[in-house]
Amino acid sequence: MTSRFTRAAAAGAALAVSAGAFAACSSEPETTPDDVITIFAPQDTGQGQDLEDNAFTKVIEEKFDVDLQFETTTWDGTAAAEKRQISLASGDYPDAYMLIPWVDQFSGDELVKLGGQGVILPLDDLIGEDTPNLTAAFEKEPGFKELATSADGKIWGIPAWNDCYHCSYPSKLWMNSAWLDTLGLEQPTTPEELRTVLEAFKTQDPNGNGEADEIPLSGAGGVSLLTYLLNPFVYTAEMYSNAEGVTPASLGAVDGKVTLQPTRDEWRDGIAYATSLYEDGLIDEGTFTQNGEALIAKGGSAEGVILGAVGIMHPWFVPLAQEDRYTQYEAVPPLTGPAGSNAFWSGGGAGAAPGATFVITNRSSEAKQQKLMQILDFMVSYEGHLQGEFGVEGVNWVRPEEGDVALDETLEPNFEVVRVPTEETLTNSWGPIAQFFSDAEFRNSQVTATDVDTPEGYERRFFEATELYEGHESDELFPYWEVDVTGETATELATIQTNVENFVVQASAEFVTGVRDIESDEDWAEFQQNLTELGADRYVEIYQEAWDASK
């Protein structure tokens, strides 16, 4: 599932390791003939993807008269990051890298370092009349070009722009409406009303099997749920997949000042509320440790429906095949508490992260550079995008028919994705590797069934659920994606941010589960001291200075 570019951008945060390794690299690595282009890319072999023998690879090879040869890695961020670094450090790297943002893309600082060392090439002079689709995309969505432009003013690579509406409000709560109906309850609107509902789920046998097997509230990794629970008390960005400190999720902005939210009494109040739910057995004990597979096992339990509510972006925890069960879960709008009804909006990070998924190395000849930019430009085009991301027309996607309705009903429908097993899609496409420009118009013009309770209406279900959260963005949101930190300061920040954010995720779970006592002034003081020792003051200072400079 996921939002997920964040996990990957971090592996790219090993700045000094990957970028520093190039001092020993040859400035003139061996290359291949101009009609043979080598590319480093992730492939999902578990879903049957083989980039060498792929329908879209054949489309590219025939259209541009080239032979594509791949150096591959997995879709696992950690393994992919390691292999990418080894590839670059070896000196025998390929002509280009085509990555997936939420697996392992290049960070902005890496691009500047690698560009300065001559390992990757600037693309500015290659963008123009020969890349009409990319040029048009930059003009249509200025934020795309801004995202592609590094802190030094050059374009060293192209990022993926994915205007994913439901991803932009990732911290949702999905609640079993059938259980509410059975117990004669309404969706909760406040933290205390949520407590009342969860207590009823726990004690009043809503699944009707005569056993106390109900799990009132659950999650995977815990932090998406915790974000939802904390926001009524204090603005909290989502910390999912942030154990490596990919984003400054613990930061807020109060009266123009960057603020570490976990230092505030309001944050303590929110944690105390979540802790009380856990102590009363209303939050699943596995919430902070279980992975997605464990949550799916509970959502699809053969023993019957046992989950009352889950904090997650969308209800992937119930298999679509269990349609009668899947449709029971409906999104609950943000709760209203002392801080109002805050919802976390991921802003510039919804589906696009600073850095790049596509770069050209100095191994590439001028002829290859031009060919690679033409290939990229094709993937930005409407036809190239459909084939690259989704696969073969008539098999993986089809043209709209009369009466079809777009996801955004104000738009003309443009295409419909055919529901087939993932492995059949990835045999015919490059999947997210080819997703360079998915603006709102492209994404929301796809044909989607109007019945949200069917598999064909899956995407519309998310779209409509997200509308419940839109407009609840907090004034305390810190727009970190608009802030550039470069040079030695960026290296310093990478270490501090990893340490602070990792610790906040860990300590939050420890407070809720009772390892630390949120009611103890001594434990609270120790937590604050831990943050200070990890560089919290410097963390805030760096972002404050960079934010001030960006205004």
UniProtKB/TrEMBL annotation:
Gene3D superfamilies: Periplasmic binding protein-like II (3.40.190.10). It comes from the Bacteria. InterPro entries: Bact_solute-bd_prot1, SBP. Keywords: Cell membrane, Lipoprotein, Membrane, Palmitate, Signal. Residues 1-23 form the signal peptide. PANTHER family: ARABINOSE-BINDING PROTEIN-RELATED (PTHR43649), POLYGALACTURONAN_RHAMNOGALACTURONAN-BINDING PROTEIN YTCQ (PTHR43649:SF33). This is Putative aldouronate transport system substrate-binding protein.
